[in-house]
Amino acid sequence: MPSIVCYGEVLWDLLPTGKVLGGAPMNVAYHASQLGLSAQVISSIGDDVLGRDLRSCLTDMRLDSTLIQIHETYPTGTVHVTLDTHGSPTYQIVTPAAWDHIMIDTQNSASVQQADAFVFGSLSSRHDTSRTTLLDLLEVASLKVLDVNLRSPFYTQSLLMDLLDKADIVKMNSEELQIIGAWLGINGSKDQIASTMIKRYSWKQLIITRGSDGAWLYHNDAKIVNTGINVTVRDTIGSGDAFLAAYLSQYLISQPLESCLDVACSAGAYVASQRGATPEISHDYLSRIVKD
Fold this sequence. Notes:
The protein is an alpha/beta fold. The chain is 39% helix and 24% strand.
């Protein structure tokens, strides 16, 4: 069974309807475990009620929490989430939080070294402590998967350049493609920006998610297109995380890249049609999208 380790924020999304477990690394790990991967999360939570509730939820979800540290000083992370009329979220990410203070140790370093893929994002680097730990873990990782996931104001151009330089596979959305392309001084169409980027950094793959319009996958000199799946959107929280988890679930068992992208788009669309970031995806549905 292929294995992944996801690094960064584990927290509570505080929606108008109540609190929901969240954080991109946890979302990716949860969906990856549903899709047949062995998944772990490296993070930190507070020694508080929210932290105990979080660990209890992870147990109920059968998600390995061995690598989640407990911080005695900083609180469990929270994010205030508002949704617009299209179900698109806006995030107010509370600081400080325990996940800003993840420490490297022999256990999480060994897990990253042994994993088939190490998944990380930019938000987990907003504080020096977790950033330093991430950079150390990247030194021992085999396949490094960056989900850009820009969250203003918690990123800088210099930080992103460092992370892009260390990645093997990169996922970003269309808006992030334009932002990073401008930073790099790359002009032209989205295809030209993407092609220049993948050559500049020698990535194995670049994946561009396009919401309801599907996704593009750049690999070597080829471009693979999925035009999207029509669903009634309830909210888009976690849909990109489900997309990435589903993609890796197929890629790590050496499925054709077209199939990897199709399954990823199907999983992302399904989560967008449900409430919250971590709906259970039925085995019947999984069998259908993998088969199709």
